[in-house]
Write a structure and sequence with these properties.
Length: 318
C-alpha cells in the first residue's frame, strides 16, 4: 500500500512537472532558401521536426500590390519575422537599414517588457541583426539588452580570413550553431534567435546548383545541433519548447541567384515547427508575420495593446 502511495505521489509529481513545464522558444532563420529547394534537398533534421509538428509553405514580401509590399531582401525579411509587421511599419527596405521604425516592437522587447526576468539570446552570423534591426542599447528601441549575444565574427578577419569562396561564412555558421547548441543546452534561455547565412551566399554565387543544395544539407546539420539541445532541455528539465525554422526570402525563378523582387519564387518561403496543435491557417500559406504572435502565444505572453493592435500577423497556435 505504501509502495502504491509512493508510486501515485511520484506520478502526480511527474504530471504536475510536465503541466507546469516552463515555456521556451528558439527560432532559426536560414538565409535565402526557396520552398522548392528545401523540399527537394534531403533535410533529415527538418523532416524530424516536421514529423513532430508540421511543415508548411508560407510567404514573405508583404501583401502583393498593397502598401505593405516589402522587398524580398534579407534585412526586411528578418525584420518582418522579428516584429510581426511589414515594411510600411518597421521601415526597413534594404540591407543598409537606414531608418528603422522601432515603434513596432520586436519579440525580444515584448518579452522583456512583459517580464524583465526572462532571458533572451541571439546567435548570428550577421551582427546587424542585433545592432540595427533589434537596435540593442538604443533608447528609441527601448534600451534593450540581450542576456547573451554571440555574433560579429564576420568582422574578425584574423580568425575567419575572408575570401571569395565564402568558406569563412560557413565556418562562422558552424561556430554560431555550435555555441547556440551549447548555450541552449546549458542555460535554456527563454527566447533565442539563431541566424545562419551560408545558404544565401551559395545561392548568390551558384544559383540552383549542387553547391546550393550542399549548403542546405549543411544548414540542416547545424539546425540538428540546436534541435538536440532543445530535446535535451525537454527531457532533462521538462521544459515546453517551441522551435521554428524559416527563411527570409526565396530566389529568382530563372536561376536561383538573386532576389528582392515579387515573383512567386522570391515570395514563397516555408516554416517548420515542432508544435502539433496548429490552426488550419498554418497550412493555408501563412505570412512570416504570423510567427511572432505564435511564439508569444506559446510563451503565454501578451504584447501591450497598442503593439498587439498593429501586428500584421495572427497566431497559428490553437
Ligand atoms: Zn537573405
Amino acid at each position: 500500500m505504501l509502495q502504491l502511495r509512493n508510486l501515485l505521489f511520484t506520478l502526480c509529481f511527474a504530471i504536475s512537472l510536465s503541466l507546469t513545464g516552463q515555456k521556451k522558444a528558439v527560432f532559426i532563420l536560414l538565409d535565402g532558401i526557396p520552398a522548392d529547394v528545401i523540399e527537394k534537398v534531403e533535410t533529415p533534421v527538418l523532416d524530424e521536426i516536421a514529423q513532430t509538428g508540421a511543415y508548411t509553405r508560407s510567404y514573405q514580401g508583404g501583401e502583393l500590390g498593397e502598401e505593405s509590399e516589402t522587398p524580398t531582401i534579407s534585412a526586411p525579411g528578418c525584420m518582418n519575422l522579428i516584429t510581426g509587421t511589414w515594411g510600411n511599419k518597421h521601415n526597413v527596405w534594404g540591407n543598409s537599414v537606414k531608418d528603422p521604425n522601432y515603434d513596432y516592437w520586436n519579440i525580444f522587447r515584448i518579452v522583456k517588457n512583459a517580464d524583465p526576468n526572462k532571458k533572451i539570446a541571439i546567435f548570428s552570423t550577421w551582427e546587424d541583426n542585433r545592432t540595427k534591426l533589434i537596435g540593442e542599447g538604443l533608447p528609441e528601441a527601448g534600451n534593450l539588452q540581450f542576456d547573451y549575444a554571440f555574433d560579429g565574427f564576420e568582422n574578425d578577419h584574423e580568425t575567419f580570413p575572408h575570401d571569395d569562396t565564402r568558406k569563412f561564412i560557413f565556418d562562422i555558421d558552424e561556430h554560431v550553431s555550435r555555441e547556440a547548441s551549447r548555450y541552449i543546452k546549458e542555460e535554456g534561455p527563454d527566447v533565442s534567435w539563431v541566424y545562419l547565412e551560408f545558404t544565401d551566399d551559395m545561392g548568390h554565387k551558384y544559383g540552383d546548383s549542387p553547391q546550393m543544395f550542399d549548403a542546405v544539407e549543411k544548414a540542416d546539420i547545424q539546425v540538428g545541433r540546436i534541435w538536440s539541445a532543445v530535446k535535451d532541455r525537454m527531457d532533462t528539465f521538462g521544459e515546453d519548447w517551441m522551435i521554428v525554422i524559416t527563411t527570409d526570402h526565396g530566389r529568382k525563378p530563372e536561376d536561383g541567384k538573386g532576389h528582392g523582387g515579387q515573383s512567386e519564387r522570391e515570395r514563397t518561403t516555408w516554416i517548420v515547427t515542432n508544435r502539433k496543435d496548429l490552426k488550419p491557417s498554418f497550412h493555408e500559406n501563412p505570412p512570416v508575420v504570423d510567427i511572432l504572435p505564435s511564439i508569444l502565444d506559446h510563451l503565454e505572453i501578451s504584447a501591450p495593446p497598442e503593439i498587439e493592435a498593429n501586428l500584421d500577423g495572427k497566431s497559428f497556435i490553437k
